Amino acid sequence: MKKSIAQFVSDGISTLPDLQAALQTAMQLEFATIPPYLCAQWSINDDPSNVQDLIEQVVVQEMFHFALAGNMLSAIGGTVSIANANFVPTYPTHKLPGGIPQKLAVDLQPLSPNQLQVFMQIELPEFPPVALMALRDAPATIGAFYDTIAAGFTAVQPAINLNANFVNMKEATQIKSIADAQAAIALIKAEGEGTPGDPDQPPPDNTTELAHYYQFKEVFVGKQLVQTNGKWGFTGAAIQMPTVFNFTKSTITPDPSLAFNQAMSSLLTSLQSCWTDGGPVDIGAMFSLADLGRGLIQQGIQPEFQWAASGS
């Protein structure tokens, strides 16, 4: 039976199969954030504050995190499995993959203050009150899950296959050692959902770009987060909320999202082959998917992000 993230955190990871299973869950968790973020990005029309670029940067980093989890899984002898209907989440959902509960439903919606609150919920930092609550009451946080995976690498000491196939995309590089895996996990946590820090105060030693939570909150608050005399505050330059194309789920027959769903499914199949067969990453397919998604949204149609084999 598939373990939940809370079970991984509670039980720890002490075997190679559990470490492989946890990394497969991490891939699904990272992927699950991408469709809602893309729909928000693609919905943007007039954008005086370049919010679209901010969301695109978050999406790209989530793709890198997804790929890093796959590279770790491949490096320790696991089989990446992403080209199937069970991998693709169903929206709306109150649970992220692995059973991480979400009070606000995660859905495919245009960018709005409400949707930004959903994104901030997904990316909530790993700060002491949250960590203590997770220990006392469960469910486990995403940050605790990645800490458990890191501890699992230390406990299991898996053999690293230097000939394993991997996806090579900027931050997503080959995993050649357990130290590389630990560094990859630290990067995922620092940029994304597992970052340490307070919801209003990034880590005091933050010297790089802000983690995703703070970037989304900047747009929500309408001000850049800046540091003055060692203290962070949303007191920087104004950020204007873009205007958007509104869209809803289509009830038209035949399904106008079919070509989009087929393109997404083909992209996942191509990505899986990168790990299983050593094929190259099809960057062009990513741009084609974006064009199809924007095309649907500008017609007022919600891209479905549902599995659809090319012949369906």
Entry summary:
This protein has 312 residues and is mainly α. It contains 10 helices and 4 strands. A two-stranded antiparallel ribbon has the order 1-2. A two-stranded antiparallel ribbon has the order 3-4.
Structural class of the secondary elements?
Answer: mainly alpha
The level of helicity is 40-55%
Indicate how many domains the architecture comprises: 1
The largest sheet is: 2 strands, antiparallel
Terminus-to-terminus distance = 30 Å
CATH architectural label = Up-down Bundle
Backbone shape? globular
- Uncertain segments are 127-139
What is the CATH class name? Mainly Alpha
CATH fold title: Ferritin
Helical stretch tally: 10
What is the CATH superfamily classification? Ferritin, core subunit, four-helix bundle
Total beta-strand segments = 4
Helix-strand sequence: HHHEEHHHHHEEHH
Kindly report the average pLDDT value. Answer: 89
Strands ordered across the widest β-sheet: 1-2
Rg over CA atoms: 19 Å
* Proportion in β-strands: 5-15%
